[in-house]
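User: For my dataset I need records formatted as: sequence, then structure tokens, nothing else. Please produce one.
Assistant:
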Amino acid sequence: MMLLAVLTSVLVLLVFVVLAVALVKISNELAAIGGTPTSFLAKLRLGLRAIERETAHLKPQATQLNQGLGQIAAGLKAVDAYLVGTIAAARKQGA
């Protein structure tokens, strides 16, 4: 009975040691990704900030473009209605 208790204690201790080693390795990998100002995550953040600055002027232009395209769509619907009427009149005339 005493032997089983000692073996169980040793195995539990071994599990905790393996868990601690794994957590240290994971922590080191995460530190390499985003822990310093020269890390990949910091570089990505700077790149995204630069893209945001470079494209900030696009939002007002896109809004203006969408309004213009909406007006064009309305005009094309009117042309479509006119052409449908013209085709119907031409068919009546031809029949």
